[in-house]
Amino acid sequence: MKKLDKLIFGLNCKNYMYGKELLELAKFCDRLAEENPEIIFTFSAPYVDLAAICAQTHHMLIYAQGMDGISPGRGNGLVLPDALKEAGVDGVTLNHAERAMTVSQLVRAVYRAKELGMLVDICCDSVEEAKMLATLQPNCLICEPTSLIGTGTTASPEYMQEVTKAIRSISDEIVVCIGAGTKNGEDIYRAIQHGAQCAGGSSGIFAAEDPKAVILDMLAGFKKARIDFGW
């Protein structure tokens, strides 16, 4: 399992892209990851695109956008963790606001991911929710107020600081990712300034007129933060 000991650039395309267009952008990001080994790139893609992306990229961590806590056998229409692992997927993002899970579903999915040696990111909304979900000991908590997702408006510095403090009260090992509304390098820099180790974007990147330009601008934000904050 990859050690998450550097700044992390998280890219999640949701369903803004798919197929050949998405694969080409994934290859672009993979080249950037190779050229910038001081930053970890994670790339989250729709299920049907994962195998192709895993086969044709070599320098990023590839994530599924969700999965179900099941084992091989019954479960028609559900996402089998073992199949994701065999396809080459490194990790999974669970409990996104657009794919929310019950507590029992989340616990089972976390257990199966850990059983298979997959990295686990869990999404949370409030500071209180972050503190509760930290007890599941994921590799990363993606902290993003649901009301700000896709708006282009980021969380306040107070939220960033409070949620980081809450997670640190449970564990020093969990990566703190600040999400929602991130659209440029300045937003990346600000998130790291206020405690995040990970930041990135979804619609801010993949729905942009020029996704590559946004990715390069965000990467510049990471590079500046890395120098200024000693990463």
- SSE arrangement, N to C: EHEHEHEHEHEHEHEHH
CATH architecture: Alpha-Beta Barrel
**Residues in β-strands, percent:** 15-25%
Outline type: globular
CATH C-level class is Alpha Beta
CATH superfamily: Aldolase class I
Taking pLDDT < 50 over at least 5 consecutive residues as the criterion, the unreliable ranges are none
- End-to-end separation: 21 Å
Number of helices: 9
Rg computed from alpha carbons, rounded to a whole number of angstroms: 16 Å
Helical percent range?
A: 40-55%
Side-by-side strand order of the widest sheet: 7-6-5-4-3-2-1-8
Structural class by SSE content: alpha/beta
Mean pLDDT: 96
Number of domains: 1
Note the main attributes of this structure:
TIM Barrel, 231 residues, 9 helices, alpha/beta, 8 strands, eight-stranded parallel beta sheet, 17% strand
Characterize the structure shown.
- The chain has 231 residues and is of the alpha/beta class.
- The protein has one domain: Alpha-Beta Barrel (TIM Barrel), CATH 3.20.20.
- 42% of the residues lie in helices and 17% in strands.
- The chain has 9 helices and 8 strands.
- The chain has helices at residues 19-35, 47-56, 81-87, 103-115, 127-134, 157-168, 185-193, 203-206, 211-228, and strands spanning 7-12, 39-45, 61-64, 91-94, 119-124, 140-143, 175-178, 198-201.
- An 8-stranded parallel β-sheet has the order 7-6-5-4-3-2-1-8.
- Helix 5 links the parallel strand 5 and strand 6.
- Helix 1 packs across helix 2 (47-56), helix 5 packs parallel to helix 6 (157-168) and helix 7 runs parallel beside helix 9 (211-228).
